[in-house]
Design brief:
The complex is a heterodimer. By secondary structure, chain A is an all-alpha fold. Chain A contains 19 helices and two strands. Classes of the chains: A mainly alpha, B alpha+beta.
Chain lengths: ~475, ~200
């Protein structure tokens, strides 16, 4: 009998007997040890390492506040807007729960963007963490879907027209597009049917997928172990007697304490926004969304919420003139790849792909390519583990080219993000086009510049020279 | 004793066959779920034509009717407005409305002013880019989006411009002219949007 063979739990005082009873029926102590008290994490985590646990914390806030919001919200085009106002004005503490949820959405993206930027700085997506990165990216894509579906629910003007624009993106797909858009909406325009199904996605379908992916992300993390600011593997140097990594410390209590401190600081900032600036000047809750949805009138100025604006800028930047820039880019990339690879088959494939793209650029509408570029701007992150060919992981040991490239990318991301909140003018379109070019060059040229960059050698252990 | 390292091929084929049958059943089961997301019978029935009274529309003004949940604009164009349309031929991407003719421009609107009567423009007020509803900017003059603006429609979402015949300007995100819905005159002041006299 397995139960009888397990050792009794000790050290829990009056709870020893209870814990022993549980542990003989459920792998309690084993799980605790494997994932917390004997899970060794690098000893040199810095500021950037707060945002993973904070993102998890915001997920909990969103789930809890979301459950309470559904108790009063009505997913019905005739009642949705009024039910949100009802929550805000008449439900006891309803305003607080809703502002937690709306502010939580923006903070979720802040945490996730900083978490992803950390991975970019320290090469946390590199071997053996490719799957960990891919699960993380899937979480990010789910989060974007969750935010998009949730944004329709208040049924304000921005909700309505935002959904209208994004669903119409699918309309651009040749042949099946128009049918697909109708299928997504369940109607010929965004309507009650659309609201009802987006509610279903937002409160159950996407959260389930999101939770499953977060679990997969954490399991993958605990399999390979965390990377760290030095980008060296702590598992390489272990204590010969205990087999524990010499540069690792147990996650609990060291990092549980650190992350708790992070949560406290986070809650201070979060509460300031929730209580004093829940609209964040129109960035977290857009002004036009305080007007009920009107299918006959688009607001004077429509823009997505800030976390989608960089991609939205890329969509808008793709005009007829820009197709020539794209064509030149594809020709140059094809030339570069053909020059770099040796296999004839690969060369032919690249040339053929380039030819197909070029033909497509000038036969299909620029609108289609705007949608393709926008999709690519998110999907390209999935390929980072293979695009980065640098001999070192961390930016600490990378050379000037990579540092410059990351700086330019961050600037382009912010510029695109800002432009996405603004109306279109000729100058702004040009700026967005330059930003789009920088954004994509960062990724597409990475295999070359990361290889030729002058890197310093990685230390053998954390903190050693 | 049988050699357990060697797979039993009959058993393996049965496993493959039952996996295929199970897969087919799963796909078959998905069909009703996918189909349930198509527009319902009720949503389809709401596509009925709409009668619009345009007797009160003053020259140079626009009014909006709702048809299939979409805004349909009726603009009563002045002589000056019609002259601007003629001048805009070089600025618009598809001056003769030749692209996606059957979808966007019914036969009776395939003319310079994209309308049955030059005076009245009837178009669906949904941008062909991503479905926003453009704004009427009828006053000619310098605008932030175009220094030499001849009057027309401006889409706030992605900056597409349309002239007073709903024709899209060159090098803008929107690929096509605004859609002219099927419509017909019931009398001089009443139009029916959503249906035309086929063969009449």
């Amino acid at each position: 009998m397995a139960a009888a063979e397990k050792q009794a739990v000790t050290g829990a005082g009056p709870f020893n007997d209870l814990l022993t009873w549980i542990d003989q029926r459920f792998p309690l102590v084993e799980t605790w040890r494997a994932h917390l008290s004997e899970y060794y994490a690098p000893k040199n985590f810095n500021f950037w390492y707060y945002f993973g646990s904070l993102a998890l914390f915001v997920l909990v806030i969103q789930i809890v506040t979301g459950i309470f919001l559904t108790m009063n919200y009505k997913p019905d085009a005739a009642q949705a807007f009024a039910s949100v106002e009802y929550i805000m004005r008449e439900v006891p503490w309803g305003w607080w729960i809703r502002y937690m949820h709306s502010t939580g959405a923006s903070f979720f993206f802040i945490c996730v963007y900083l978490h992803m930027f950390r991975a970019l700085l320290y090469g946390s997506y590199r071997k053996p963490r490719e799957l960990l990165w891919i699960f993380g990216m899937l979480v990010f894509v789910c989060l974007m879907a969750e935010a998009f579906f949730g944004y329709l629910l208040p049924w304000g003007q921005m909700s309505y027209w935002g959904a209208q624009v994004i669903v119409n993106l699918f309309d651009a797909i040749p042949v099946i597009g128009p049918k697909l858009a109708i299928w997504i909406r369940g109607d010929y325009v965004v309507s009650d049917a659309t609201l009802n199904r987006f509610f279903a996605y937002h409160v159950i379908a996407v959260p389930l997928a999101l939770l499953a992916l977060v679990v997969a992300h954490l399991l993958a993390l605990h399999e390979v172990g965390s990377n760290n600011p030095d980008g060296v593997e702590i598992k390489k140097v272990k204590d010969p007697k205990t087999g524990r990594p010499l540069d690792g410390i147990p996650f609990h209590p060291y990092y549980t304490v650190k992350d708790t401190f992070g949560v406290v600081v986070f809650l201070v900032v979060f509460s300031i926004v929730v209580f004093f600036a829940p609209e964040a000047g129109g960035y977290f809750l857009e002004h036009n969304n305080f007007i009920p949805a009107d299918p006959l009138k688009t607001p004077l100025h429509i823009a997505p919420v800030w976390y989608f604006t960089p991609y939205y800028s890329i969509l808008r930047a793709t005009t007829e003139n820009f197709m020539w820039v794209l064509a030149a880019g594809v020709v140059a990339m094809a030339g570069l790849i053909i020059w770099s690879v040796k296999s004839t088959a690969a060369r032919i494939c690249v040339a053929a792909l380039a030819a197909v793209l070029l033909a497509g650029f000038f036969t299909l509408d620029p609108k289609v390519w705007g949608v393709v570029l926008m999709g690519t701007s998110v999907m390209i992150f999935f390929f980072l583990p293979w695009l980065d060919q640098s001999p070192v992981k961390s930016i600490r040991y990378k050379g000037p080219i990579t540092k410059t490239a990351i700086a330019l990318f961050v600037i382009a991301f912010f510029v695109l993000g800002y432009l996405g909140t603004q109306t279109v003018t000729e100058e702004r379109t040009l700026a967005a086009q330059i930003g789009t070019a920088v954004y994509f060059l960062f990724f597409f040229l990475m295999p070359w510049y990361s290889k030729m960059d002058k890197c310093r050698p990685e230390p053998a252990r954390i903190g050693s020279k | 004793m049988s050699d357990s390292s060697k797979p039993n091929s009959a058993r393996r084929n049965l496993v493959i066959a039952s996996a295929c049958a199970g897969g087919a059943a799963a796909v078959g089961t998905a069909v009703p779920f996918v189909a349930s997301m198509l527009p319902s019978e009720r949503a389809e029935a709401l596509g009925a034509p709409v009668e619009a009274d345009i007797s009160l529309l003053a020259p140079g003004e626009m009014t909006i009717f709702e048809w299939r949940g979409q805004p349909v604009w009726v603009v009563r164009r002045t002589k000056e407005m019609l002259d601007e349309i003629k001048k805009a031929d070089s600025k618009v991407a598809d001056p003769k409305s030749e692209r996606k003719k059957s979808e966007l421009t019914p036969e009776y609107a395939r003319n310079e002013f994209r309308s049955i009567k030059p005076e009245y423009l009837v178009v669906v007020g949904i941008c062909t880019h991503l479905g926003c509803s453009p704004q009427a900017k009828f006053k000619p003059g310098p605008e932030a989006f175009e220094s030499d603006w001849a009057g027309g429609f401006y889409c706030p979402c992605h900056g597409s411009l349309f002239d007073l015949a709903g024709r899209v300007y060159k090098n803008k995100p929107a690929p096509d002219n605004l859609r002219v819905p099927p419509y017909t005159y019931l009398s001089d002041t009443r139009i029916l949007i959503g249906e035309d006299k086929k063969g009449a």
